[in-house]
Inverse folding.
């Protein structure tokens, strides 16, 4: 049949409908001679479309058919395929999921027949059945072929849903057991004299020992050897070592049929440095004297699987009491947690988000939490002593050690994540725990797990959901202080040990465990609803506090907030029901002094942390009407400005909290990667709320004496970082005051009124209250501190026309109206524009003067004893260097480059780059240094609660600044080195652009 050019065949369309991605290639494969008898069979097409990857399944089927030894075998395969649904589902299911098993079938084309039998014994085989299947293997190559044949049957039952993930893992462990036995038999046959001289037991550890093996995994073992009667022990151990080594080679070495899996004996006493085989008494002596906590944790899954089973059983019985006494060891819980943290820290950064096993919310989180609880409680409750993770989890729930709902969620998440791991490994039979990145791989993976509507999106959604559940529940169990207390008690005792709990808190980073215990007791004691909710929250909060540089401050702050708000229903409801609120609160309380101080002055502001839009800074257009309305309702100027300052305090807290949370990141959202965006947001928010507060103070001062209208028009002009919308948390408000007498008002009267308004505004904004003051700095006015505090517009015009110095023109680059009469503010800007953007740029004398002033400032204004490489404002490559360089470019070129006519440092820098005045590399260097220096200043203010231009000297404060900047614990040296490196590069650019000829 031919098709009209430009139109697709009906087969092509059907293939697309059945889930084929490359329908053209699939159409060609269906036309292959090997499938001539079945290519039009609709049942076959439906079955292919039901697989995880129809394209892969069809390709594998064609290879298998072509590999049949003759036409008779090929017809038998195709006939069975079309008539026997069990075989069709099993064979195509495997071919559509595993490229590696497709390769095996192409090399061994008759092995498909192991999938034909469908008897009860084939549905759930055990060790005996697998031993029977491997019995004919007499050498490493035939053992590999037999192993893959058995693996083929396991995979078929798995992908068809005959077995669930736990049953599949158990079958894989039983197959490993049978394989170890077959390999040991081959080794004994090769060295009968060695076999006669010793008893050798093979102890399975890890996932094999726990009956929960992966498709591709190291098989962890420990060897125990003893001499037979009449043989010297040393000679017997040498013989046992040779047998053990041969067994490992048989399984691990690569042949023409590949490898089975590596046999790893590194969990033995002394690891790689210890003897491969020890006697039982030697093992016992080591574990009694030298073993570490993690070695007892590993023994939870130990079981004898091959060799002398009687000797292996004796090994388990001898060591079991030591395993269940491990929880009484000093710092037991701390040791386990350190081991877990090392695992996470060693994951390559590029793999963290794709790591299914070791990453946050991964399989290892569940396993560690379960094993920790087993070791703590299993010494007195034998029902918990299972090597299987899911069985142990069920026993913990049944015994009340884990909440039933928590256990059910962990069980479901663990099963889903293990199923993902199985299918990822099954594709190419490679040892990996990384979720693939390509859409084709994700589509196959999703479809293999039954996600068919939108496999990629559904897979990512389900994976993230389960990982989030694991992460949340794992930390709730892992950080529960009760664990350490229980672990230190003698069997049978059920009271809290303050000493043990103190050690646990100290291990979490609390500097004053005794005080922390008092806080915990105050927060969790009693039978009130408040205490019950806080008992639920505290295990998780302690983990979040421990993730900060100052856990003590976090816990103390939480107690203070709870003491203030604990009786208000909405507070408890917020923490309990709003997923992000509790974590946000923990981050804010433990990140430094500023945000907690702001919060504790009005604890009800904690509600900001729960609302989705709560952390979004409010613009001046929204803040100013709120403040002016509050001022209008007040009876006195003091009350009016108190209300305005209260709004400012609330908004400062909002801004600081948002900054901290974005910088630290949360479980749901990683730390904000764009430091420049964080700086911009803080600068804009603080500038807006200060401008709105000034507007409120101006309205209050005017209303108190003059009612609705001042005798003179009045405007506040922002200068410096205020005018540039770049304020930090500790910045003063640099301003100029300008007024203009109203019609018919005497100039002296107007001047007196303007001066009284300024004085009253400054007084009101610095009155001692619970809210932070807003200092006003007018030193950038004409004649500086010696000049009048406020001038008329005409006075400014006269001064600038006759006396203005170049530094004053430079200062005016950042002038912008912030409050008061808008028309007057606009006319002030029109007045100064020719000064700050000179029509012909700067002459050489003006450039020399600016450079001279900058050099003088560098030598005279840097505080005595300050490190010039670490001073963020005046130091090498710091804020002053970058800003003066950009301002010089503005004054020289703004008359011809409109983009330079901005008060913003970063916008001016970008405009200079766009105009070709500065290279992209220089632009990046200056911008990075300016942003970093600004972030350091903001971080210092957040941590210390007071402004500073250099890094703190206190170790804990320095670490807190490091966390704010994205440096983990123990990396403050890298932070300081990074700052010096960044600013050193910036200084080199400044030397070229500012002091050079550029």
């Amino acid at each position: 049949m031919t098709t009209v050019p430009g139109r697709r065949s009906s087969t092509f369309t059907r293939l697309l409908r059945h889930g084929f991605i490359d329908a053209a290639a699939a159409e060609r494969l269906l036309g292959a001679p090997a499938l001539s008898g079945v290519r039009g069979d609709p049942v076959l097409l439906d079955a292919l479309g039901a697989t995880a990857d129809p394209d892969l399944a069809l390709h594998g089927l064609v290879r298998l058919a072509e590999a049949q030894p003759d036409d008779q075998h090929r017809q038998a395969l195709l006939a069975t395929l079309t008539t026997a649904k069990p075989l069709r589902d099993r064979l195509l299911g495997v071919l559509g999921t595993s490229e590696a098993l497709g390769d095996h079938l192409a090399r061994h084309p008759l092995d498909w027949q192991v999938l034909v039998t469908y008897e009860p014994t084939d549905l759930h085989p055990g060790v005996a059945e697998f031993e029977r299947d491997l019995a004919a293997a007499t050498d490493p190559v035939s053992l590999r072929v037999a192993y893959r044949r058995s693996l083929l049957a396991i995979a078929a039952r798995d992908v068809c849903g005959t077995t669930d993930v736990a049953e599949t893992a158990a079958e894989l462990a039983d197959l490993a057991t049978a394989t170890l036995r077959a390999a040991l038999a081959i080794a004994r046959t090769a060295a009968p004299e060695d076999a006669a001289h010793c008893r050798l037991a093979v102890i399975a550890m890890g996932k094999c020992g726990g009956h929960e093996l992966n498709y591709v995994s190291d098989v962890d073992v420990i060897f125990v050897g003893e001499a037979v009667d009449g043989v010297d022990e040393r000679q017997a151990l040498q013989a046992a070592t040779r047998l053990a080594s041969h067994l490992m080679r048989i399984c691990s070495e690569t042949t023409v049929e590949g490898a089975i899996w590596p046999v790893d004996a590194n969990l033995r006493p002394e690891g790689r440095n210890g003897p491969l085989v020890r006697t039982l008494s030697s093992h016992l002596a080591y574990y009694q004297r030298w073993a570490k906590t993690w070695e007892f944790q590993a023994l939870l899954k130990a079981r004898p699987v091959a060799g002398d089973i009687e000797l292996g059983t004796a090994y388990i019985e001898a060591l079991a009491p030591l395993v269940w006494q491990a929880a009484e060891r000093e710092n037991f819980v701390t040791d386990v947690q350190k081991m877990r943290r090392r695992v996470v820290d060693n994951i390559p950064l590029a793999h963290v988000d794709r790591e299914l096993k070791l990453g946050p919310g991964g399989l290892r989180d569940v396993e560690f939490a379960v094993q920790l609880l087993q070791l703590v409680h299993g010494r007195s409750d034998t029902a918990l002593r299972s090597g299987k993770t899911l069985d142990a989890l069920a026993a913990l729930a049944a015994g009340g050690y884990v909440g039933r709902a928590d256990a059910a969620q962990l069980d479901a998440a663990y099963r889903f994540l293990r199923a993902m791991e199985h299918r990822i490994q099954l594709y190419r039979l490679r040892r990996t725990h990384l979720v693939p990145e390509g859409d084709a791989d994700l589509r196959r993976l999703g479809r293999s797990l039954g996600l068919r509507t939108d496999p990629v999106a559904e897979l990512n959604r389900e994976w993230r959901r389960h990982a989030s559940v694991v992460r949340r529940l794992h930390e709730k169990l892992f950080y529960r202080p009760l664990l350490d207390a229980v672990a230190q008690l003698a069997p049978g005792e059920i009271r809290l040990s303050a000493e043990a709990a103190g050690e646990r808190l100290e291990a979490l980073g609390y500097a004053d465990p005794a005080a922390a215990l008092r806080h915990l007791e105050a927060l969790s004691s009693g039978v009130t609803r408040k205490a019950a909710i806080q008992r639920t929250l505290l295990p998780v909060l302690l983990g979040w506090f421990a993730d900060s540089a100052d856990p003590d401050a976090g816990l103390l702050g939480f107690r203070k907030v709870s003491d203030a708000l604990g009786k208000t229903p909405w507070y408890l409801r917020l923490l309990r029901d709003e997923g992000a609120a509790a974590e946000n609160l923990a981050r804010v309380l433990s990140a430094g002094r500023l945000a907690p101080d702001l919060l504790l002055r009005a604890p009800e502001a904690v509600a900001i942390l729960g609302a989705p839009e709560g952390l979004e800074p409010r613009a001046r257009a929204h803040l100013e009407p709120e403040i002016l309305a509050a001022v209008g309702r007040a009876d006195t100027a003091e009350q009016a400005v108190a209300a305005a300052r209260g709004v400012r305090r609330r908004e400062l807290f909002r801004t600081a909290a948002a900054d901290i949370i974005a910088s630290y990141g949360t479980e749901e959202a990683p730390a904000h990667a764009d430091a420049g965006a964080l700086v911009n947001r803080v600068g804009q928010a603080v500038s807006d709320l200060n401008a709105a507060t000034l507007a409120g103070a101006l309205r209050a001062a005017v209303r108190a004496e003059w009612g609705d209208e001042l005798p003179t028009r009045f405007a506040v002009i922002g200068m410096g970082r205020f005018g540039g919308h770049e304020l930090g948390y500790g910045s003063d408000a640099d301003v100029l005051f300008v007024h203009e007498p109203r019609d018919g008002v005497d100039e002296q009267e107007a001047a007196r009124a303007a001066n009284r308004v300024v004085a009253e505004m400054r007084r009101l904004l610095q009155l001692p209250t619970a809210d932070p003051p807003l200092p006003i700095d007018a030193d950038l006015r004409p004649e500086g501190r010696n000049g009048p505090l406020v001038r008329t517009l005409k006075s400014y015009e006269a001064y600038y026309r006759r006396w203005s110095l170049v530094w004053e023109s430079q200062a005016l680059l950042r002038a912008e109206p912030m409050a008061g009469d808008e028309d007057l503010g606009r006319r002030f800007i029109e007045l100064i524009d020719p000064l700050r953007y000179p029509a012909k740029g700067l002459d050489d004398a003006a450039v020399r003067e600016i450079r001279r002033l900058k050099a003088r400032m560098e030598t005279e204004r840097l505080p005595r004893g300050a490190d010039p490489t670490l001073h963020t404002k005046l130091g090498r490559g710091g804020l002053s260097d970058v800003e003066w360089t950009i301002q010089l470019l503005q004054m020289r070129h703004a008359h011809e480059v409109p983009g330079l006519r901005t008060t913003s440092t970063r916008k001016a820098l970008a405009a200079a780059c766009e105009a070709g005045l500065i290279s992209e590399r220089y632009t990046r260097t200056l911008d990075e240094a300016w942003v970093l220096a600004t972030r350091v200043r903001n971080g210092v203010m957040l941590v210390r609660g007071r402004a500073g231009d250099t890094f703190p000297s206190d170790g804990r404060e320095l670490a807190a600044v490091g966390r704010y900047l994205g440096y983990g614990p123990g990396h403050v040296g890298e932070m300081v080195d990074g700052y010096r490196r960044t600013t050193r590069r910036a200084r080199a650019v400044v030397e070229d652009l500012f002091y050079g000829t550029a």
Observations:
- The longest strand covers residues 219-227.
- Confidence is low (pLDDT under 50) at residues 1-6, 481-497.
- The two ends are 75 Å apart (CA to CA).
